[in-house]
Amino acid sequence: VGGTARTPLEQAVRGEVRRDRPTLEGVSGDASHLTGRPSAVVRPVDDDDIVALVRWARTESVPLVPRGAGTSLDGESVPADGAVVVDLTGWNRVLELATDERWARVGPGIGNFALQEAVRPHGLFFPPNPGSWHRSTVGGNVATNASGPRSFRYGAARSWVRALAVVFGNGARARLGTRSAKRSLGPDLLSLVVGSEGTLAIVTEVTVRLAPLPAVRRGLVVPVGATVGTGAIAARLAGAALEGLSAVEYVDRATSRALADEGAPLGPADSAWLLLEVEGPTAAEAERRAARVVAELAASGVTAPPQPFDDADEMWTRRGESGSALDRRLGPRVREDVAVPVGRTDELLAELERAAAEERVPLYVYGHLGEGSVHPNFAVDPASPVAARLRERTVRAALALGGTISGEHGIGRLKRPFVEEELGPAAVGLLDAVKRWCDPDGILNPGKLYPTPRGGGRSAPSPSGAATP
Amino acid sequence: VGGTARTPLEQAVRGEVRRDRPTLEGVSGDASHLTGRPSAVVRPVDDDDIVALVRWARTESVPLVPRGAGTSLDGESVPADGAVVVDLTGWNRVLELATDERWARVGPGIGNFALQEAVRPHGLFFPPNPGSWHRSTVGGNVATNASGPRSFRYGAARSWVRALAVVFGNGARARLGTRSAKRSLGPDLLSLVVGSEGTLAIVTEVTVRLAPLPAVRRGLVVPVGATVGTGAIAARLAGAALEGLSAVEYVDRATSRALADEGAPLGPADSAWLLLEVEGPTAAEAERRAARVVAELAASGVTAPPQPFDDADEMWTRRGESGSALDRRLGPRVREDVAVPVGRTDELLAELERAAAEERVPLYVYGHLGEGSVHPNFAVDPASPVAARLRERTVRAALALGGTISGEHGIGRLKRPFVEEELGPAAVGLLDAVKRWCDPDGILNPGKLYPTPRGGGRSAPSPSGAATP
Questions:
Q1: Do B404 and A183 touch (CB under 8 A)?
Q2: Which of A353, A404, B140, B247 is packed most tightly, with the most Cβ within 10 A?
Q3: SS (H, E, C) A196-240
Q4: ipTM above threshold 0.90
Q5: What pLDDT does A452 receive?
Q6: Pairwise CA distance, residues B339 & B114, whole Å
Q7: Number of CB pairs, chain A paired with chain B, less than 8 A apart
């Protein structure tokens, strides 16, 4: 596609353009096994530069792929062949911080971790903490509606975006959302762009809401038994609506061993674990709340004493390393992500175990069981037919239980075949209409998210789908 | 428009059709001064009937106006001339209640109050509590993204809708949203329909999220002085992020007198009041939290002792009667609704007082000051040129302060001229594209919300705008 360009990209934009092999290789993939062959990387200098870039891409029919840290798991940031990657990692500043009103206006390329560091001294934090929080960007968190353990209490990224500045794929600029704490002004356009995986607009600024940092955050790791059965324990904790309980996570024994082998154990024993976080305004109150959690666990038959984990962030960092630990232990594999109504989690877990047994593939499970959100890892070549079967069986099981094909990671390339099954034809029609207006030439991140060819854009490059070595 | 119909409505649908004058008059207006002249009222019996109705309306080019309790304040539910009003008040059942997962699937015509009554025995509540909560329907709350005092802590209706069943204006059915507690599946289509004021789809089912009912809810009414200056007190309370503080409301002295004259005083003295709600898991903890609120007030110079209001719901009922009390005292008037960043509320209040003084019109103010959300009432004929000037000055003041033309009530007919000023042309273009797909013939509630003629629908009837006697 890039070969047909008549105006060189270098003349169209003021920002740096790179075409050297190491730079292109550095942006050819994400945390999935997929790769693409981009033609260039551009680092735009300002909003005007992005408008110029979009105009150029429309004229020359070249796909654009906005990119943060490239930590997406389903190919969301894997470039179509010939695409120009729009590197926004340099747009990483806090532009404005309103501590009293608890919001920050930031560049989309700021790291989640860097944002936390910037606002912590003011007693604030940005609640979404995906497993990638040490690496991923806020723009990427917005693009995939990321969440993480604390979404049990705080919800996903969409709840924490107050406003966006964007350049749509048609070249028009807009400011979506408001600085006001409340608004009733028709359909919510902001929430269309959140989760749209760079397919509708390039986000140039994000205004995030911030939450008051709890005075005390106490981690608890609780040894539990078999995976199937833990769903009911988590559902009971969720149903009890315990004050201050902000996360109910699970890591199975196999994954815990991988973490322990790397010197980052979750607990003192060889066990599967529930990881809980309890917040409180004082240490004494956090203690009382933790005692209520322990009592609720006991009512579920979990009587082993919980191990305190004093630094809750360190607990989440270790939990977040589960994926990387399995990367090093297993290499490329199927990393799934589905969610079901919390009361049906055990049924899902049982079906995952059956699927793994029948395919004779080792299974590693972790996830946000307090929200019915499960990440099965199947240790098998992700480009193999077995992998395709296991992926399909996982999402079909979630759908059959009233759940969703993606709890947290998004759709990207890998989940695209299942979108219409969940949404139905009318919702897909509406999705396509939105895409058509925002990106009439289909230049923005084609081949992702939309189940229809139209959603893939005019140029509609086929995913290369090659596994990285 | 109805006169051109060739297939009688009575043959197209199975539900009851009424054309008698009392029925038509009963649905000709809302809580604004506007009225329209509907041609019929239909009470559909099921989803199939609604699909048939939509098909009929498209063929015959007749506008449809979905209707709940008709408590909208800006003409949202005022029918276009010749429209068929779709009366959904009979769709008022709780269809499914999941107490452990804290959600309920309900008919859109169920009353907000009836829903609260149904779920309270299970220790749950539906947080949006607009002033109309004794009368308005959940479907209407969804259509206008309603909120109310507790949105200070809980947010507006959009945050509490998990799923919707809809029939779009193109006749297609969809289920939007998910039963899963979390999902990352592209743009949020559910949040397009919430707040769309019946212009995109007819909602046939609402799945609402429910919150655990706090064990203790304590109302506090605090006497305060002049209106300008109270914004800073409320902003300070909001900024302090006090645990358990769930509402920060204001009612000025003039409005409080109107309530006292009706035998429903907010407090024992002739004063303006801040109305606060504090929640706690126990009476002792609620007491500690209330003491922290009082200390924060003292730091703002508010040292008069707060009056406890033991039944917080009764406090909100009285506060909710402010509008009706002014109805009886003043008759039709300008009822405005804007919101600004909470730190700028006093600037807005000062401008409202200047505007009222310059136009020599009495001003009554109440609102959710903890969120910068203000309801000025100007005692003047709402159809007069003075009213138009005051409306315009109010919304322009809010926009100039970085706020919004509608904090809570929505757009309807009255705010339509100001939508593009707030959203900008690109967002309006996207809004129109959504409308075009959902309702290609413009049959759903034409003349509302959209600033462009296209958004008003093909038939685009002009608002009658006649004041009720």
A1: yes
A2: B140
A3: CCCCCEEEEEEEEECEECCCEEEEEEEEECCCCCHHHHHHHHHHC
A4: yes
A5: 81
A6: 29
A7: 266
